[in-house]
Amino acid sequence: KLEEFLNFNQVKTSLKEAILLDYYTAGFWWAKERNFSVIQLSGFMDLLNFLLENLGDKHMTLGDNLKELGKAMAGIGEPDSERSGNLNFFSIEQAKAIIDYL
User: Fold this and answer.
1) Minimal CA–CA distance to 87: which of 17, 33, 31?
2) CA-to-CA distance for 48 and 24, rounded, in angstroms?
3) Whose CA is closest to 90, among 101, 102, 74?
4) How far apart are CA 78 and CA 24, in angstroms?
5) What is the pTM of this model?
């Protein structure tokens, strides 16, 4: 279960944990519906976590967070690109779909 993996022990009584579980569950199923490979699914979940941490821990504005997303996804589709932020396992079409989803 995803709630066990995320170490959420109070999903039934904690609104915060319930919202976070919904956030990650929705993202997981969205990626599964697009037939992401295991590594792509893992990268997408890392990206969801990265964006959430930017909002929560770093208190970034939505605009700044979108800039960080752009930096993380820059270079996708370019052969041997070091700019892709280790997300080069996504195709350009998948990257566009991710941006649309987010």
Assistant:
1) 31
2) 7
3) 74
4) 29
5) 0.77
Q: Where are the domains of the chain?
A: 2-101
Q: What count of residues does the chain have?
A: 102
For 8, 85, 88, the CA distances from 74, given in Å and listed in that order, are 33, 7, 9
Burial of 43 (0-12, 13-18, 19+ CB in 10 A): buried
Residue pair 87/72 in contact (Cβ under 8 Å)? The answer is yes
Q: Spell out the residues 6+ positions from residue 2 whose beta carbon is closer than 8 angstroms to its own.
A: 21, 24, 25, 28
CB burial of residue 87 (10 Å; 0-12, 13-18, 19+)? buried
* The token pair that represents 78 in the structure block: 């370019």
pLDDT tens digits, 62-96:
889 888 888 888 777 766 655 546 778 888 899 89
